[in-house]
Amino acid sequence: MEADYQPKFSPSRGLTATHNDHEDPYPSLSDYHDYEPNLEFDDTELQHATVTSDLEEKIDAGGLDYLESPVSDGTIEENFEEELVNAPVIATGVDSLSYPFVDEETEEDFSEVAKYGIVEVGGDDTYGRKVIVVSACKLPGNKELDHTLLLRYLMYTLDKFVEEDYSLVYFHYGLTSKNKPPLSWLWQAYRAFDRKYKKNLKALYLVHPTNFIRVIWQIFRAAISAKFGRKVMYVNYLDELRQHLHLDQICIPQPVLEHDERLVQKNNRVVQPQPAPQQNAKFHTPLQTQQFGVSLQFIKDNNNGEVIPPVVRQCVEFLSQPDALETEGLFRRSASVQLVKELQSKYNQGQPVDFRGDVHLAAVLLKTFLRELEEPLMTFDLYDEITQFQSMSKEERPRQVKILILEKLPEDNYLILKYIVQFLSKVMDRSDLNKMTSSNLAVVFGPNLVWAQTGQLSLSAIGPINMFTDFVLTHQDQIFII
């Protein structure tokens, strides 16, 4: 099987995978592919797998017979829905799974899976999209893990974010013969993740891929659309992720870091040292007009004592127009990174800003402002109380939330929160058009209002934070003093 994947050396491109020299349908962030040609485990299951009738002809008694190159000319069969309908259903107990926004009384207990840290939330990427991280090295042995429960847990986690654009990072290193899920489970997982999961996934980064990834691609290719294939990128070295992700916000497992270091040394790759923007910012004197990345007090002191930051007021006023309020997917969609950075720079320099009629640009800018505050709007001091919201009784919640917001939240923070929540109530009033209910807005704004002092968002904290935010949005008339 490996004969089809023997790498060759090209002076201009380095090591590349070859099979008729076709272009890889999955783009890579570097030119170096398949530096580790041997599979990390016995691939017998892959050699004898049967997934669709169309692929049976490609699998013989001796292994995979590659009638078509796994690195094709970039086009992939478009009969996606038809292939899924005709594909055999694999009995894993997961046929139709969905986890809407529900309270703790109806949520399933995932503690047996969550304790391994296989799935984590890694802050936002450079495009303002939430990042979900899956680490193969954290998978326990197959005898210790219920894969059906794992699939439900993955869907439960993604359901908190799929209503807005998001990115997925998969650290492949650490997948072995002892912890690799069965091929039938992989196929069932792909079937379970229907369109609602795929449409808002904007990037899937496969970090440290090996031939196993390519073999899986060959088996599943008949059911993968070209549109989805274009979202997938091979990442051979961690430093290639820096232009897309904030690596300091991602919990990269130590084995993955060590593996990457070995690869860099093995291939004599020169990695340019990257500055640490957050650390350097402490020693950098901000402009008096700066609004992003500074404190609310700094903005107030440099804007004639105005409590509502100019960027917040201008974004809210622009988004309060009827056409903007009625835009479907408001606050879910990402915007041009270049334009967001351009407007951030203008705000920081005190220059006039024009949203150019782009609703999503203004929406992303508002979320970015909140996320880049030196301290979250709900403050670090209130983090522990907010993340305990889920454990409060329903009778207790109204009183506790009022105490937290009316008594413990600093006055300026209270006024800004009230201003934003009252605007979001207008968004909720148009939910029949913009599809943004209180729970959807909670998923979007919760992580931008509350986070730990470490800057990272614990997966266990997401549920309580979103529930707290939803409660504030739905009960804002009773919470805020008019």
From TrEMBL:
Residues 19-30 have a biased composition (Basic and acidic residues). Residues 109-264 form the CRAL-TRIO domain. Residues 294-480 form the Rho-GAP domain. Residues 1-30 are annotated as: Disordered. Gene3D superfamilies: CRAL-TRIO lipid binding domain, Rho GTPase activation protein. This is Rho GTPase-activating protein 1.
